[in-house]
């Protein structure tokens, strides 16, 4: 990608995981509604490329997105328990605003931070907890219909559908990344579900780099590390994006200690 890449929600956990690993690899524009402290901004990024703006502010977004080749859209309310008024504003209206601005600016690729909670209701009482365990064969692969866990999941499924709409009608490349559970240094502790959908920081950064660099039309992929426990397939991410994850929650004890040090 020889044009700038706009990263929304740059100051949050996912944004910092990305910048911590590939902060020097692209010509970034960073956007967040909260000011970014110096330690959150890679040295290679000039202050003129940092935008403190809300994604529902059309004018501010249009300034930030002008001349951009790709968008990684993370900004939003990430809480599974978030109330409707917040996900409606931040996750649905905000995402639609980002797509409109992206189309007008001629953006080529748009990666949307979707969530495991868009499909959480597949985790039925009959399937759990067995589906969280190694060697269990149940897999979601991105071709299934959304079955949200909560209203936050509804907002993520809606964001995915907005991507489908803007791809079909405006020819922008869109990838919806259903992110699992991002934690730094070790998988979620003593949490089978979280260990099955663990996404390490370096795999997260690599996956979003693939979203910037690969050629695709419209995709839904799962964003997890190569965990032994898994009920999300990462085959599509490997095939289409070239995703090659390095981490696996099985390399840690259930309590989160690295096995080679346990
Ligand atoms: N952390 C995780 O494990 C997962 C995260 N996701 C998604 O990834 C995205 C990022 O999540 P996190 O980094 O964990 O959240 P976070 O809360 O750490 O970061 C979100 C960032 O977006 C900014 N933001 C929120 N609303 C905004 C708005 N209206 N305008 C501009 N900026 C706004 C916040 O200031 C914050 O810096 C979210 O969309 C979330 O739903 C999805 C699945 C799992
Ligand atoms: O979408 C998200 O999912 C992760 C994992 O969900 P959890 O219910 O197992 O915690 C969550 O931690 C994150 O905040 C959220 O944005």
UniProtKB/TrEMBL annotation:
<feature type="binding site">
    <location>
        <position position="152"/>
    </location>
    <ligand>
        <name>NAD(+)</name>
    </ligand>
</feature>
<feature type="active site" description="Proton acceptor">
    <location>
        <position position="152"/>
    </location>
</feature>
<comment type="pathway">
    <text>Carbohydrate degradation; pentose phosphate pathway.</text>
</comment>
<comment type="function">
    <text>Catalyzes the NAD-dependent oxidation of glucose 6-phosphate to 6-phosphogluconolactone.</text>
</comment>
<protein>
    <recommendedName>
        <fullName>NAD-dependent glucose-6-phosphate dehydrogenase</fullName>
        <ecNumber>1.1.1.388</ecNumber>
    </recommendedName>
</protein>
<dbReference type="InterPro" id="IPR001509">
    <property type="entry name" value="Epimerase_deHydtase"/>
</dbReference>
<dbReference type="InterPro" id="IPR036291">
    <property type="entry name" value="NAD(P)-bd_dom_sf"/>
</dbReference>
<comment type="subunit">
    <text>Homodimer.</text>
</comment>
<feature type="domain" description="NAD-dependent epimerase/dehydratase">
    <location>
        <begin position="5"/>
        <end position="184"/>
    </location>
</feature>
<dbReference type="InterPro" id="IPR032884">
    <property type="entry name" value="Glc6PDH_archaea"/>
</dbReference>
<keyword id="KW-0520">NAD</keyword>
<keyword id="KW-0119">Carbohydrate metabolism</keyword>
<feature type="binding site">
    <location>
        <position position="156"/>
    </location>
    <ligand>
        <name>NAD(+)</name>
    </ligand>
</feature>
<keyword id="KW-0560">Oxidoreductase</keyword>
<comment type="similarity">
    <text>Belongs to the NAD(P)-dependent epimerase/dehydratase family.</text>
</comment>
<feature type="binding site">
    <location>
        <position position="90"/>
    </location>
    <ligand>
        <name>NAD(+)</name>
    </ligand>
</feature>
<dbReference type="Pfam" id="PF01370">
    <property type="entry name" value="Epimerase"/>
</dbReference>
<feature type="binding site">
    <location>
        <position position="115"/>
    </location>
    <ligand>
        <name>NAD(+)</name>
    </ligand>
</feature>
<keyword id="KW-0313">Glucose metabolism</keyword>
